[in-house]
What does this fold into?
Amino acid sequence: MKWKELLPQPGAASLELYGNRRVIVSDCRSVDEYGENSLLLDLGDIRARISGRGLTVASFAFGQADVTGEIVSVEFLN
Amino acid sequence: MIRLFRFLRGYAVFCVGGGFAERFLNLCRLRGIVLWDVKVDGDKLYGFTLIENLPLLNDPVKNSGMELLSVEKHGLRCFLKSHKRRAGVVAGLFVTAVCLFLLSQTVWDVVVPEIDGVNAEDFTESLADLGVKRGAFKRSIDIPEVQRQLLNEYASLVWVSVNIFGSRVEVEAIPVEPEPEPVDLTTPTNVVAAKAGKITLVERGAGTQLVKIGAIVPRGELLLAGVVTYRNGAEHLTHAHGHVFAETESAFSARVPAAYQTTVTGAARTVYCPYFFGLSLPLGPSRDGALASAGEWYARGGDAVLPVGVQWQTVLECAPVSVTLTPAERLCLALENCAAQKRAELQEAEITECRTAVRAEDGATAVSVTAKAVEDIALLVPIAVDPGTPTDPAGTAKSPTEN
It folds into this structure.
């Protein structure tokens, strides 16, 4: 593996998890599904499904989604 | 901060239902409509946005097949709009502003430091007399005049500074360094016995020693003479002084009759006075009697004591009555009386022996206490001097035996 591959790739989405109460997703292109217990986000090459209880989109602007609630799992789908 | 910003700009809580919530969110994002705290509840979606973005929501709502169900507007503009016809609110805001302005112009607290040789309560009263007190207007305080008056009133102060910090007055003061009391060595004196006793120790400072250890002297006996005679026959007057310790005997007595006049206390009455910026209003009539306790409580803001609180005084109702004492009570009172006399007279003496005798006299109880003690009986008595008589002002003259 080349060392360049270890660096964050330009345009790649990033997720910041704060315990199981908050996740900030940057470079989020759109919301594909939105329900009370799950949220499917389009991050470009992949999609991320955030499952949990009482999920709230605290903010969704400038390509960044701030999701709060009780997060049970984060799943990546191709 | 963000909440304040949103409150000032105005925000709305909306609810949309039906259609596709995801598409609605994506369309809002594409149009730059800021949403926050978006939550899905069944087929409804709740969220917040700025009031100015409400018209922009129409397109995303239509294009996502949703329907705007409700909108509630909040913020400063809505508050003012809904209360613009309420004169009471405007009047309340005005009164609040006036009160804030007036209270900021007054003194809330006066801090007086502990100054050596100056009673803090007296000093605070002096400050109050000069206008520096809680509730006083800051502009009415003439600081240079207050400082000058304090220096005039308190001779023991060398410097006083009155500083106003916000609504708090702090006083700083520096007392005069106490000078040692000058010892008068110029007045010719004799040392005589203040009490009769048996001499145990003589510490002669100056003068001619006339008594020896073991001698029994009556009261008024000359112990150290201020007249010094030299070998050539010349006499000089000097300031005789020193300590002469002797075994003394003191008697104290007390007689307590059966019928005893005393003061009894009855019910306790407490009067509360709310205190507000120097004004205190008693909640009840003032009572005559013995002051049992007094207290005060002031609201605090951090370290500062605010001029708002409650003061109270508890007074015991008193009435003079004549009571008949039991023999035990009479004895206690008599012993207490004797003990007080003994404490007052033999305060600096070393008591070596104490005898107490009790006897009953016509329904009264009499106690007599005889105390033996070792004490300093030296008493300075000035010598009447004719003008022209040579004196030894330094008190350095030696006794004839030393010449």
